[in-house]
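User: I'm writing a tutorial on reading structure tokens. Could you give me a worked example: one chain, its sequence, then its tokens, then a sentence or two explaining what the tokens reveal?
Assistant: Sure. Here is the example chain.
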Amino acid sequence: LQARAVLRDVGRVLQMPYGQVDRLCKMVPANPANPVKLKDAIEAEPRFAEEVEKEPVVQNLLDTAMKLEGLYRHASTHAAGIVIGDRPLYQLVPMYRDPRSDMPVTQFNMKYVEQAGLVKFDFLGLKTLTVLDTAVKLIRRRGVDIDLSRIPLDDPDTYAMLSRGEVVGVFQVESAGMRKALIGMKPDRIEDIIALVALYRPGPMENIPTYNARKHGEEEIASIHPKIDHLVKETQGVIVYQEQVMQIAQELAGYSLGEADLLRRAMGKKIRAEMDKQRERFVSGAVERGVSTPQADFIFDLLAKFADYGFNKSHAAAYAIVSYQTAYLKARYPVEFLAASMTLDMNNTDKLADFRADAMRLGIEVVPPSVMTS
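And here are its predicted structure tokens:
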């Protein structure tokens, strides 16, 4: 329970008017990245004292809320997290039965199950994989056998279609923003799709115009340091991936990959004491390898900024490959691809209308259901 949520819950129990509780909640600064404690908010905001003077029940609300702040509000089950152990889990961690499921659940959260020596995997279902499988089966009807794991990753027709922004039904790049980014990028290799998947998020999005301008030779690639330029060459001199942060630490400051992973975690969590320790380690390692102290400090700050929203490259690459596979089938076999897409979105009339409009644009006839042939 954080400050605003605990005020709302306690206010409801005390049967206070919604408007009054809402007004008090809005006095607490909203900062999801660094939540403000209720005690600090009360000290910093004089209007709380004014509200207490006006109505004594407000003091009761604040006192109760401060006692409950930080407690768990309810238990929820991770949508896709599966914990794996070398013996029955009840022998290792406390368990409970989720009332909405018949599956036993660990009472420890994902952080603590790892500390208990277990491993957690996220298994996510992806409808797009079924779309691809259905399209491949439809294509097989006309005697063409496709192995998606072996399709060429440099197909010019696929990249031309993506560069035109014709992406209805193409995984990960269907939104208007993504379409605009693709038209600006004009991708011509799989690395461009991987970078776009990683960059198209709040924060790193501001680097998309820089990436595009450098890709098309409209802007010179700025060198961070000659020793690490080859590590960011693939991404036009922009640090995009967490793996790049780790490689730079390895190359420039002599980190082992294990140490580099700890650096990445420390940068992501922004723990001051850990960051100071890592800065000292990074700068001393870089100076030993011929980098000046001011430059090492500058590069460390640059890495810390990018590590804040750096994306895992292996994750981006997996999504980009699926995105490319859907684009390849759409560019090469649009009839089967759109038929598969419509089949998997049969109950979504808005999506069906989009697919039908796209089929008409491509000159593909969409016939109504028939009792004879459907």
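What the tokens reveal: Residues 313-332 form the longest helix (20 residues). Residues 202-310 form one domain.
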